[in-house]
Design brief:
The complex is a heterodimer of chains A (about 290) and B (about 300).
Chain A (H helix, E strand, L loop, with lengths): L4 H8 L3 H7 L6 H23 L4 E3 L3 E4 L3 E4 L1 H9 L6 H17 L3 H5 L3 H15 L11 H16 L9 H11 L4 H14 L3 H6 L1 H8 L6 E4 L11 H5 L6 H6 L16 H5 L6 E4 L8
Antiparallel strand pairs in A: 1-2, 2-3, 4-5
Helix pairs in contact in A: 3-9, 4-8, 7-10, 8-12, 9-10
Chain B lengths: L35 H36 L13 H7 L5 H5 L6 E2 L14 E2 L14 H5 L19 E4 L15 H5 L7 E7 L7 E7 L9 H5 L7 E4 L1 H4 L10 H8 L22 H4 L23
Antiparallel strand pairs in B: 1-2, 3-6, 4-5
Classes of the chains: A mainly alpha (about 290), B alpha+beta (about 300).
Chain lengths: ~290, ~300
């Protein structure tokens, strides 16, 4: 199968057509909003240690906002339960709030709008496209779900919160808020891994992503392809999507135009890069389709 | 790799990835696959086996790593109320809320790759020599813990057992040299209970006393103020995690003097005072008598110290 050079070049910079037709800002709307969300969350955590403004204490694993709102990562708490510890009410309430939020909105909204490692993996994906790298054997997509199960088994077997020994998401936050140590090495490793293996970390390994994906079955916030008839097969959305397999059923199927897969991170990059305005942000019940 | 959606070879549609996301059509069969069903099934089974295998390997790696990492004797002193280390690691989500609520910046989160043995990465600890625990009456760090890794049942800071002080270096402790330093004793928040000064004869000068700082585990909270304040360049008194500092008597051991006090009297009754016969007259046989020491004036082993059957 011969690769046309111009197509390869275009796909190293997806979204050019959208920039031409809608302008740079509109063609990066959701990306900018997403970065704003990620950085705002980091800023809220950092305002305390850096400037003494204690709006949020703790980190992504467990935090306390304004002294009243507890939030706890349900996946970490699940491992704690597996390890044989019944947590206090505060942590349970915190986890329940987080669970409810992501069940409603879509589990992997966490991955694209909150998780700080997304900044690293997006940077790796961007570099990979620009450098035209095609290397790396991607592990099976189901690996992350098996790993999710394995971390719970290991937690039970070792009596400790297993994934926290290696979790780059925690390293990122703790390194930034409590002092670096060698945490940056783990983050560099994720970058290098994603540079050599397409979407290797978030898309195939991260059990945290797999956990939040499980919460996405009933998610309300969804991307839909109401104008899928306009699709000119330019492949920009597939090139930019962190979970490209989720697009096809909605874009090319005859059923619902809504991207219903719980692996969709609802990042909205497909909305941004599509020069034909095929996609839009909507809710899961939005069945409007021009086709 | 030609079927990866991010690397389309032709403008046609990307195929479903291995393992098959729900709702995607199976990839078209090619002649060597022997039909769509068997090809798809083989790919599916291969994918599952690969995924399960690699996940199990990674899980095993994580498990072995955590086993090995926790086996290191952590020198970390945990915050007050911390569960025993094994339970603590099941409960602590490493959020650092205890660190944030400590008003004296005593607590830190262990950084990744710290070789000093301060505990699993991300767990809270403090170094007594740098910043000891100030033993706040309201114990804010314990209250901040959302999971119970720090036991909220601890309401009296004097009941905390963060570690145990031990006067480890008798050779450089100034009081052991016969000087009056006493700083560790005087800064102790549980003075005269956790640390006492035990008066001993100074055999070197033969005319002075030595006042030896002595730690009592019944009362020592492990706050580390003694270690912090030791005037030596390297502290002679140090606080260790309980597991490192404490010895352990065998279960069946009883201390006679404690049992006696508990029972309000000797449990074995008065000892028989038998007359020492054959002491006054020299033995008839030179073989039996030559090696015998002169008879003691009292029936005890002379060299045994008090408390071990000796007499004072």
């Amino acid at each position: 199968m011969a690769v046309s050079t111009s197509a390869a070049k275009r796909l190293s910079r997806p979204g050019q057509e959208a920039v031409r037709t809608r302008g740079w800002l509109a063609a990066h709307k959701w990306l900018l909003l997403r970065r704003a969300s990620q950085l705002t969350i980091l800023a809220l955590f950092l305002a305390g240690p850096w400037f003494g403004v204690w709006l949020v204490k703790g980190n992504l694993t467990s935090s306390l906002t304004l002294g009243v709102l507890p939030l706890t990562d349900p996946y970490a708490l699940l491992q704690s339960l597996a390890a044989g510890h019944w947590p206090y009410k505060t942590a349970l309430i915190g986890a329940a709030i987080v669970l409810a939020f992501y069940l409603l909105l879509g589990g992997r909204v966490f991955c694209s709008w909150v998780c700080p490692v997304n900044l690293i993996t997006d940077a790796a994906a961007w570099s990979r496209r620009r450098l035209g790298l095609k290397t790396g054997k991607t592990p099976a997509e189901a690996t992350r779900r098996w790993l999710l199960g394995a971390t719970l088994v290991v937690s039970a077997a070792t009596g400790s919160i297993a994934w926290e020994w290696v979790n780059p998401v925690s390293f990122f936050h703790r390194s930034l808020f409590f002092g670096w140590g060698l945490g940056w090495l783990a983050l560099a490793a994720v970058f290098v891994y994603d540079l050599t293996v397409a979407r290797g970390w978030c898309g195939h390994l991260c059990p945290m992503g797999a956990f939040y994906s499980l919460l996405g079955k009933t998610a309300l916030a969804r991307v839909t392809a109401p104008q899928r008839a306009r699709c000119n097969d330019c492949m920009d959305c597939f090139a930019v999507c962190p979970e490209p397999q989720v697009i096809r059923p909605a874009l090319k199927g005859s059923g619902s135009p809504v991207i219903l897969s719980s692996d969709c991170t609802t990042c909205g990059r497909c909305v941004d890069v599509c020069g034909q305005d095929v996609f839009r942000f909507s809710h899961r019940f939005d069945q409007r389709s021009a086709s | 790799m030609a079927d990866r959606p991010d690397m389309p070879a032709t403008p046609d549609l990307p195929r479903a990835p291995r393992g098959g996301a729900a709702g995607t059509a199976p990839a078209p069969a090619t002649p060597e696959q022997g039909g769509p069903a068997s090809g798809a099934r083989r790919r599916f089974l291969n994918g599952i086996a690969g995924a399960a295998g690699s996940a199990c390997l990674m899980g095993l790696g994580v498990g072995l790593y955590s086993r090995q990492a926790r086996a290191l004797p952590a020198l970390a002193l945990r915050p007050p109320g911390a569960l025993a280390e094994a339970d603590f690691l099941a409960a602590c989500v490493r959020c650092g809320l205890c660190v944030r609520d400590c008003p004296y910046d005593t607590l830190k989160l262990a950084p990744l790759g710290d070789a000093a043995g301060v505990g699993a990465a991300g767990t809270p600890y403090f170094s007594a020599r740098q910043v000891p625990c100030e033993m706040c009456e309201d114990i804010p760090c314990v209250k901040a813990c959302p999971t119970g890794a720090l036991d909220h049942g601890l309401t009296d800071i004097n009941q905390a057992r963060m570690g145990l002080a031990a006067l480890v270096d008798h050779e450089s402790c100034l009081n052991f040299l016969g000087l009056r330093c006493d700083v560790c004793y005087r800064v102790c928040p549980v003075i005269d209970q956790a640390i006492t000064l035990e008066k001993m004869h100074n055999p070197r000068s033969d005319r002075h006393a030595m006042l030896l700082p002595t730690v009592h585990s019944d009362h020592c909270t492990g706050c580390g103020k003694c270690e912090k304040s030791c005037v030596l360049p390297e502290a002679a008194i140090k606080v260790f995690p309980l597991a490192l500092a404490k010895g352990k008597l065998p279960e069946h051991y009883r201390k006679g003097w404690e049992e006696k006090e508990k029972a309000g009297g000797s449990l074995i009754g008065d000892q028989l005072q038998l007359p020492a016969r054959g002491v006054d007259t020299p033995p008839a046989s030179p073989i039996g008598g030559a090696g015998l020491p002169s008879a003691p004036s009292h029936p005890v082993v002379p060299s045994a110290p008090p408390g071990l059957g000796g007499e004072r």
